[in-house]
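[recover] target loaded
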């Protein structure tokens, strides 16, 4: 605990030196057991099934956009004058176009076309909320919070996707890079900067109101007059216009602070694979396996469904 305090002070000094605004609103994802989630070491590779990409952009365009979203959450973008983190989020193209959501140690980025339904379907057989642009399911050790696997599904059934910068005239297209940048924040362990009450864990208990990194209760998303530090974060819950969605591409100082706080810079850094099932089982830890997706995605799917990155019609 003491070490953590010292580290945070050091980081705070670094942040003051490199960031233009104070950062005090980010929210970490917490498991049913109260553990904050994070990768053991932040070398996360997302496997992008380009073969299923819808046609608004070409395959290379989607891959490049996803890679740029990963770069936003990587050390080269996050470090200021001083090194603050080792986190690297890379996106690679894979031929598998029909990957399933599950704890298989392959972090997938998949387009869902035809039906906005996860594969496999949840136990109740329901498809996803059509208002959700994308859905991130994170599989984690519920006791330690270690993230073991993260899968990202894009709703290409109810939405078209594009590149707002290259084609701002395509007013019906969602900005792919912006939305993916938001989802990647969930991949590394972040929740929204505001709270949508009513979500439940797998056992039916209500997800409690989280606290931000300063220990303050996170305000409701529908509360009026939320401060800019909340609404201008990439991890804010929604956007209203294509230009606002495009702005998700650029992390706010608060988002950057989150990544640097969670994944502290360390010398002699080595990437380590996530703990395997055997070790977590042997240790008596509970985790959310493939058949227990609800218990994990129960945390994140609900939060992601609250994402609501939809265009509001004014
Ligand atoms: Zn979200």
């Amino acid at each position: 605990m003491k070490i953590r305090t010292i580290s945070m002070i050091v980081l705070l000094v670094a942040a003051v030196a490199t960031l233009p605004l104070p950062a005090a609103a980010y929210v970490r994802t917490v498991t049913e057991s109260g553990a904050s989630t994070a990768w053991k070491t932040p070398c996360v590779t997302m496997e992008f099934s380009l073969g299923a990409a819808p046609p608004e952009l070409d395959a290379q365009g989607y891959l490049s956009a996803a890679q740029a979203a990963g770069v936003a959450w990587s050390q080269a973008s996050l470090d200021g004058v001083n090194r603050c983190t080792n986190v690297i989020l890379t996106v690679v193209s894979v031929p598998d176009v029909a990957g399933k959501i599950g704890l298989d140690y392959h972090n997938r980025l998949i387009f869902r076309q035809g039906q906005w339904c996860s594969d496999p379907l949840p136990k109740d057989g329901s498809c996803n909320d059509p208002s959700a642009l994308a859905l991130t399911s994170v599989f984690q050790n519920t006791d330690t919070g270690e993230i073991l696997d993260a899968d990202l599904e894009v709703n290409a059934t109810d939405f078209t996707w594009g590149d707002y910068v290259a084609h701002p005239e395509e007013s019906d297209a969602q900005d792919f890079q912006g939305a993916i940048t938001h989802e990647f924040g969930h991949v590394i362990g972040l929740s929204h900067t505001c709270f949508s009450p009513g979500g439940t864990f797998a056992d039916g208990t209500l997800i409690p109101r989280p606290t931000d990194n300063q220990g303050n209760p996170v305000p409701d998303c529908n509360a009026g007059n939320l401060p800019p530090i909340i609404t201008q974060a990439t991890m804010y819950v929604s956007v209203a216009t294509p230009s606002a969605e495009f702005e998700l591409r650029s992390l706010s100082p608060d988002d950057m602070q989150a990544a640097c706080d969670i994944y502290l810079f360390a010398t002699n850094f080595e990437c380590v694979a996530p703990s395997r099932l055997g070790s977590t089982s042997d240790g008596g830890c509970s985790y959310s396996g493939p058949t227990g997706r609800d218990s994990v995605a129960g945390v994140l799917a609900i939060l992601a469904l609250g994402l609501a990155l939809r265009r509001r019609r004014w």
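[recover] notes: The chain has a mean pLDDT of 77.
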